[in-house]
Structure prediction request, 405 residues.
Amino acid sequence: MSPQVSLPHRRRIGWAMTAIAALVVAGCGGAPSAPSADTRTAGVPAEATASTVSPSSVPSATATPSTAPSTPASSSPASPSPSVGKGPVKATEVVGGLTTPWGLVSLRDSSTLVSERDTGRILHVRGGKATEVTKLAAVRPQGEGGLLGLVVTPDEKTAYAYFTAEEDNRIVAMSWDGSSLGEPRAVLTGIPKGWRHNGGRLVIGPDGMLYVGTGEIGEERLSQDKQSLAGKILRITLDGKPAPGNPFDNEVYSYGHRNVQGLAFDDEGRLWASEFGNQTWDELNLIAKGGNYGWPETEGSSSSSGDDRFVNPKVVWRTDEASPSGLAYWQGELWMAALQGRRLWQVPVDGTKAGEPKGHFADDYGRLRSVTVTSDGKALLLSASNTDGRGRPSKVDDQLLRITR
Prediction:
């Protein structure tokens, strides 16, 4: 997320001006489009069509059936926003007192590696205690930049970190022996950096390639430039080279993204991504090789306006309910951490279709940044992000939590 001073930029129109936004929808590039029939809107019945969904018709996260606004062109009331799922999902603290945790890696010995955005530290969490294993001197925290994504190879011998340096965002590799990290070695440099929208998520795919989410650093034109590494999902080898079979003969795998913050593969090898919207819709996308996801020409869906150049999201949320960050696939469902929404979203998945999202822990732990599956597959790890300048930290923040059913 952006620092406190940039909040008005992201919300500069606001929901009080929904009428203006609705007029803009009918306009040209950059307009937030009403979701199309193949995009699910959180809190709206699945049978609702693109013509009956607009930002003003989507109830807020705190709406109840008696106060939820009616869906246009329908005499029946709109469904309330997805229920807060208490159910069997519970959270227990693993460790507290972290500072802006960002990347999470669950290791086979049940310990965890955690990167801290603003300190440049990588911590090893074991037995309820966090120990610093390295501090990357080249990290230059600023705004949304700093030490971001973290991933470890399946053999747990090499760790990769994504961070903001003096001149760029970059990815480095470090050896890992179970207790210490080696000297960082740059594998990909030249990813554009900015005060905001630096992306940063890393995941190793079932093909053994490294997938990287980047942001457009506030320079919207970069998202549609297939030669730029900004506003993209990249696919590279573990040595940092463009992966074989990439669509544009470079590192770019998909484009037209605003700020990709979460990446997760399902059990069929499909790649899903969570992404910040601008003024209206946050997105959950199913990623296609070479796909154009529309930014800045569209926000949310585009086919409702007859434009089939762009891949539509599978789910959209009002921006005050999500600001999506980390993403994990666990037990047949996607789990998405939300910053502004201050909850963990559970999204059922049936093949390429997404079901009705359900929220957990609304306001219980504040802003939620990252989520990953534990190495044994029995739980999720979830991190809070209340010390990032945008939250209200308690005495125990930031926390790393274990989520079980």
Notes: Confidence is low (pLDDT under 50) at residues 1-29, 59-86.
